[in-house]
Amino acid sequence: MRKRSQRSRVVLAVVVAAALGAAGCDAVGGDSPAPSDSAKPSPRPTPLWDRSPSSVAAVGDSITRGFDACDVLSDCPEASWATGASPEVDSLAVRLLGRTGAERRSWNYAVTGARMADLPGQIDRAVRRKPQLVTVMVGANDACRATPSAMTPVTEFRADFEDSMRSLRTALPKAQVFVASVPNLKRLWSQGRTSPLGKQVWQLGICPSMLGDADAVDATANLRRNTVQKRVEDYNKVLKDVCAKDKRCRYDGGAVYEYRFGTTQLSRWDYFHPSVNGQARLAEIAYRTVTAERP
């Protein structure tokens, strides 16, 4: 009796094992294959654009230096839209890094009067800091010459910007770049010409191609201003096109050009450069562009 019972159990075990094998079951359960390294989910790729970079370097011209924002005919980098510490501006660096972080990990290499031809040299200095984000605002001085014929040719403007981007990529392949459009100079003339003091300061040589003979509205003056304005638009197209070829570059989409600076946003000394309030508006534009989910 005991032997028959043992034989029955052995037979049952064999039948169950055969059934399991036919069903393709394994230790994991069901018909799933055993886990392997190849079946593990791959880590999420690092995005090309980091919306919260940990350091900022600024390059450009008088706008980024805060020229005429605090005192007449003087730089005021603490009011810079890009890296300034002024609480009235709440600069891009402060918004991204916090006030203490901005003091330690942001640098301003912009130079009042700089043109696009000066950008490669500024980039060379900026990359030594190894910033994660580089801000670029340059081009107004290329249009603001003694006469329209002295403006930087578009081909040269493009070549210098491309050279700057190549230098940046060679030194810092993963650095991000924010590019601001050139402001609407004709709109600034239209706003500032209402100020007698502003027009007096303009006579000292601020953007003569656009601001010279500020009250003249004859055909010759209008042609001159329209020629300068067309050149600004051409510069902005270059900034947009060159930036679009770099996956880690964001152009502001013409936001600075389109912004309607009122007298509150313009310096009370020259009614042309941004005031502290105007610098704050530029910081807002930059922050929106840098932190946007998509460009």
Brief characterization of the structure:
By secondary structure, the protein is an alpha/beta fold.
Distinctive features:
295 residues; disordered N terminus; five-stranded parallel sheet; Rossmann fold; alpha/beta; single chain; 11 helices; 5 strands; 44% helix
Strand percentage lies at: 5-15%
How many H/I helical runs? 11
SSE succession? HEHEHEHHEHHHHEHH
Alpha carbon gap, first and last residue = 83 Å
Which fold does the CATH topology refer to? Rossmann fold
What profile does the largest beta sheet have?
A: 5 strands, parallel
What best-fitting shape do the alpha-carbon axes yield?
A: globular
CATH class: Alpha Beta
Low-confidence stretches: 1-8, 10-38
* Helicity level: 40-55%
Mean pLDDT: 88
CATH architecture: 3-Layer(aba) Sandwich
Radius of gyration: 30 Å
Task: Give the strand tally.
Answer: 5
What structural class do helix, strand and pairing data support? alpha/beta
Number of domains: 1
How are the strands of the largest sheet arranged?
2-1-3-4-5
Within CATH, the superfamily carries the name: SGNH hydrolase
